[in-house]
Amino acid sequence: xxxxxxxxxxxxxxxxxxxxxxxxxxxxxxxxxxxxxxxxxxxxxxxxxxxxxxxxxxxxxxxxxxxxxxxxxxxxxxxxxxxxxxxxxxxxxxxxxxxxxxxxxxxxxxxxxxxxxxxxxxxxxxxxxxxxxxxxx
Length: 137
Known about the structure:
The chain is mainly alpha-helical. The protein is about 85% helix and about 0% strand. Helix 1 packs antiparallel against helix 2 (about 40-60), helix 2 (about 40-60) packs across helix 3 (about 70-95) and helix 3 runs antiparallel to helix 4 (about 100-135). The protein is globular and about 55 Å long. The mean pLDDT is about 90.
């Protein structure tokens, strides 16, 4: 059986999450060591990412119930939008400070991260709309 668009996007997100899991674990460990116990925000973001990873894995393999598809894609869009906001703030601060030798290097990297999160939000919403439309057909 051919995979749906939504399942293909879930597989791409699953692979990206596996790649980002190692830096996320490192970040949680560093926050725990530096602050003597990471804040709830750090743990919440990490836990939300792991829950989404499980959802992507189940959906890409066709094991996710149709009732949970809305929660998966809207949750994914909200999660990635929340992570997009600090990147937009950083990009605006770089633009307001003017370009120096440091910012010439960091700005393209930051811009790549911003566009990555935007692509994730748009892909999540597009997968949600495809699943919603498929339900009506």
